[in-house]
Amino acid sequence: MNAPDQYSKPAVIVHWMIAILVLVALSLGYYMTDLSLSPRKLQLISWHKWIGFTVLLLFIPRLIVRLTRPVPAPVDTMPGWQRAVASITHVVLYVLIIAVPLTGWLMSSAKGFPVVYLGLVPLPDLVGKDEALGDLLKSAHEVLTSGLLILVGLHIAAALKHHVIDRDETLVRMVPLLKR
Amino acid sequence: MNSKRLLAAALVSLVLPLAGTGAYAAQPAGTFDQVLPAKNRIDFVFKQMNVPVKGYFKKANVDLVFDPAAPAKTTVRLDLDLGSVDAGSADANSEVVGKPWFDLKTFPTATFVSSSVKPLGGDRYEMTGKLTIKGKTRDVTTPVTVTQNGNTAAFDGGFTLKRLEFAIGDGSWSDTSIVADEVKVSFHVEAERRAAK
Question: What pLDDT, on the 0 to 100 scale, is given for residue B10?
């Protein structure tokens, strides 16, 4: 297959794993933050951190797949500006998918709470305990998360627009089950 | 530091290097009972979701009488201001003084009173005593290492307590899969020798 009309199977799998984990982490994150301190909150915060670290881990196979497997070209009917916006969105999504969990991890370290992945594997503290730095990293985590939320929304809206309005193959290439 | 003590310290610093040139610089005799409150440290580590979280108390009053020549006669009393706790985060600090945890309004102070001290050889001792937190008293035993340096001695040790034995964090917080029952406590106290009479 020289010019694939589908994303490769590994690309589809790793895309959807990350997609689901990011959506769960986002929902958990926004929900848990406003809870008052309780055992439940501590549990949710831990799950949120574990999911975030899993996203970081999954980014490695994701990058390998992206760099080694050919990516289908945008559909012919797509105007140039849309192709440009799509490429920019994809690049920024990749950056945020790394930056958001990373600032979360940094923030956790700075606030004096090491991350113990799955409650089993202690991860190294990226910075020492520092209240002011912790607050700064918290703001960074929140701002980047807002950015991620907006881009995820844009990404989903564009995919649905291609499928429902343009009725082209854009979404089908990432969701083989939808093949018409 | 008063001028007498300053003079004594100056003399000690002059004499010590000279004494050190001998075969062995014997520790001067005498009882340590002048606790240096600014040096007191009570630290603790607890685990939430298996994540170690460090905390400490800013205010601890310690009275102790320790004679290296008669360690069994040692007496120690600790009055710990539970309100001076730093439990690792602002959230935790406001939570931990509440009723399910320390219940600070009713029980502002934790106490420890030693009941026996036995030498384990060298600079190590084993101290047993009664620890009272939140109106509940339990026996605790802790190793203590004494480091003498001229007229100052440092006392270091640590033990593990079970928070639920003192009803610390009861109600919904008693779920030990979230906050572990074991809390590691460590202490550092320094005292100077009683001034010669």
Answer: 55
- The reply to whether A178 falls in a domain is no
* A3 within domain boundaries: no
What is the spatial distance between Cα A140 and Cα A100, in angstroms, rounded to a whole number?
8
**pLDDT at position B17:** 47
Mutate to test the interface with A, among B44, B46, B50, B176 (most CBs of A within 10 A): B50
- Establish if A177 belongs to a structural domain: no
DSSP class per residue in A24-36 = HHHHHHHHHHTSP
In chain B, what are the domains?
30-193 (2.40.128.110)
Give contacts of B48 with chain A, Cβ < 8 Å. Answer: 42
Residue B194, helix vs strand vs coil: coil
Domain contains A107: yes
What residues of chain B have any CB closer than 8 angstroms to a CB in chain A?
48-54, 88-89, 91-92, 95, 172-173, 175, 178-179
Domain range for A100 = 9-171
Extract the tokens encoding A5: 């009309």
Burial of B14 (0-12, 13-18, 19+ CB in 10 A): exposed
Q: What is the pTM of this model?
A: 0.84
Q: How many domains does chain A have?
A: 1
The enclosing domain of A143 has a CATH number of: 1.20.810.10
- Does B172 sit within 8 Å of A38, measured CB to CB? yes
Q: Is B191 helix (H, G, I), strand (E, B) or coil?
A: strand
pLDDT of residue B20: 41
A46 interfacial to chain B (CB closer than 8 Å): yes
Which residues 83-112 of A are in CB contact (within 8 Å) with B? 111-112
Quote the CA–CA distance of B85 and B176 in Å, as a whole number: 21
Of B48, B52, B54, the CB nearest to A42: B48
Ranges in chain B, pLDDT < 50: 1, 11, 14-25
Q: What is the ipTM of this complex?
A: 0.83
- What residues of B are in contact with residue A117 (Cβ under 8 Å)? none
Contact of A128 with chain B, judged by CB distance below 8 Å, is answered with no
